[in-house]
Amino acid sequence: RGLGSSASRAREDSWLKSLFVRKVDPRKDAHSNLLAKRETSSLYKLQFHNVKPECLEAYNKLCQEVLPKIHEEKHYPCALVGTWNTWYGEQDQAVHLWRYEGGYPALNEVMSKLRQNKEFIEFRKERGNMLLSRKNQLLLEFSFWNEPVPRDGPNIYELRSYQLRPGTMIEWGNYWARAIRFRQDSNEAVGGFFSQIGQLYMVHHLWAYKDLQTREDIRNAAWHKPGWDELVYYTVPLIQEMESRIMIPLKISPLQ
């Protein structure tokens, strides 16, 4: 009787465990090859700078003097996609998004040239005195998202960042390849990216809105479209953490 009871409990435990074990299909190709744009080889860098509160104005002024020079200089194979201050979210924060046209070789070329640029060296030293902390990530863009191109303003921007459960990036991509069509009516979709270096299994969606009320109206309208609720239902379990930043572009930002 004791042996039968133990075997029964073991079967029950095994069955219960099976309910909570995610089965991830084996892949025969890198996620980046399956999800990223194939027609381009651009690499993106997303920078987060937490600035000393008393230094934010000086920091912005310094960036507005130096960053356009890098953006406009033809022998640097990179472009400033957008630069912002966080309005709602982490305060006294600057966010910069760069594109390196040519992937990792372009990134290496830019970094090598900047190390020889005396003005940039002085810029980094002065900037460093204004910062509390900084971090960055290298990203690729999802194949099904819009290319982030300059746009006129005024707009506010929302950066929605998702920490996914390891092994779920392909599922996320499959669902959002369908979900993105629900969010195109008002031209609010700016860009979608996933991390390669830095914090991994990170996804960033960048949106543009006229103002906070317009954001609310557009997001609410999506729930009235058949299929949106189902896609949200299936993507939520893939997320470990999520964060929303509302950002205001600096005057030099190509995304206004």
Automatic annotation (TrEMBL):
Q: Which organism is it from?
A: Chaetorhynchus papuensis (pygmy drongo)
Query: What does the record list as coiled-coil region(s)?
Result: none
Per the record, the GO terms for biological process are: mitophagy
- Cellular compartments annotated: Mitochondrion matrix
> What keyword terms does UniProt attach to this protein?
Autophagy, Mitochondrion, Transit peptide
Which family does the UniProt entry place this protein in?
Belongs to the NipSnap family.
Domain annotation NIPSNAP: ranges: 157-254
Name under which the protein is recorded: NIPS2 protein
Q: Which GO terms describe its cellular component?
A: mitochondrial matrix
Q: Sorted alphabetically, which InterPro entries does this protein's record hold?
A: Dimeric_a/b-barrel (IPR011008), NIPSNAP (IPR012577), NipSnap_domain (IPR051557)
Pfam families attached to this UniProt entry:
NIPSNAP
What Gene3D superfamilies does the record tag this protein with?
3.30.70.100
* Source species taxonomy: Eukaryota, Metazoa, Chordata, Craniata, Vertebrata
